[in-house]
Amino acid sequence: MILIGEELNVMSKTIGQGIKDRDAGPIRECIAEQVKNKMDYLDLNVGPVKKDPVGTMEWLVKTVQEITDIPLCLDTTNVAAMEAGLKICKKKPILNSASGSQESRQTMMPLAAKYPCSLVLSVINDSGLPSDAEERAASIMDSVAYANDIGIASEDIWVDPVMMPVSVDQRQVAAYMEFVQMLPDIVPGAKSLCGLSNLSFGVPKELRGLLNRTFLVMLDRIGQHSAIVSGYDEELSTLMNGGLPGIVKLIHRTMDAEDIDVSSLSEKERQYVKTAEVLMGRSLFSSSWLEV
């Protein structure tokens, strides 16, 4: 799976201050940690960038490219800032993101036709977020058709089904997984992507990593192409690079509803099995799911 490190985010106090001060020090440290954890892309999230959007994006892209040659995923809702970044990327970047809304079709999506880049295209449309796999399918098929019409190949589209927090609606986990498995048939050539941290939003901080890592292993098994993840999570990197095969096998066995003797497992193994049970919808989610 393609891993996109999310830590270069203006909402981070350290990174945000570094960007404001045009100080490359925090940027360099952040990149080094994500490189160590084998990120394939780096997400540069500058948000709406209200003050000097073009200058901010240009500085950040240039600064990152002076430090590393890892390709970039540019993440902003500011169209001018996005275009400024796309112009100076040395390697083919990812435009993150567009949607099926009329505003996005008119402003953000055309940039992916103008510049050589991949396009993150979410299932959101003017009616909001579709509620199930079938509605997601209808929305993305319409959006991809529009993208194709303006010159964006399906092979350059990375579809974001939009992961809802499990704490908000546990049923959305199953709907998400169903859609990911449908995608190759409904939009041949397109890839799948998610913002993994959305899953655990609202969950106690000490439990978020476990939820995210478990779900990423599950998504990898069903064919998800890529995910925006914490570039600081060493255990996540280890899992996705073959370093914990026993844990991966346990998660797969849980997905298959095998009878697992949890009393024979280590504490870490039990935690992953219980978490997979919750994500498969077999146990009710609560912030105390590990204690049940």
Which features does this protein show?
8 strands; 292 residues; alpha/beta; 48% helix; globular; single chain; 8-stranded parallel beta barrel
Topology:
Blueprint: E1 2-9, H1 13-21, H2 24-36, E2 41-47, H3 53-67, E3 72-76, H4 79-88, E4 94-98, H5 102-107, H6 109-114, E5 118-122, H7 133-149, E6 157-160, H8 171-186, E7 191-195, H9 205-221, E8 226-229, H10 234-240, H11 245-255, H12 267-279
Parallel strand pairs: 1-2, 1-8, 2-3, 3-4, 4-5, 5-6, 6-7, 7-8
Helix pairs in contact: 1-2, 3-4, 7-8, 9-10, 9-11, 9-12, 11-12
What is the number of helices? 12
Radius of gyration, in Å, reads: 19 Å
Q: Secondary-structure element order, as H and E?
A: EHHEHEHEHHEHEHEHEHHH
Backbone shape: globular
The assigned structural class equals alpha/beta
Helix content: 40-55%
Biggest β-sheet: strands ordered side by side in the sheet: 1-2-3-4-5-6-7-8
- Beta-strand content: 5-15%
The oligomeric state of the chains shown is: single chain
Number of beta-strand segments: 8
Termini separation (Å)?
32 Å
| Low-pLDDT stretches | none
Largest sheet: 8 strands, parallel, barrel
What does this structure look like?
The chain has 292 residues and is of the alpha/beta class. It has a domain at 1-91. It contains 12 helices and 8 strands. The protein has helices spanning 13-21, 24-36, 53-67, 79-88, 102-107, 109-114, 133-149, 171-186, 205-221, 234-240, 245-255, 267-279, and strands spanning 2-9, 41-47, 72-76, 94-98, 118-122, 157-160, 191-195, 226-229. The protein has an 8-stranded parallel beta barrel, surrounded by 6 helices. Helix 3 (53-67) links the parallel strand 2 and strand 3 (72-76). Helix 3 (53-67) packs parallel to helix 4 and helix 9 (205-221) packs across helix 12 (267-279). The longest helix has 17 residues, at 133-149. The two termini are 32 Å apart.
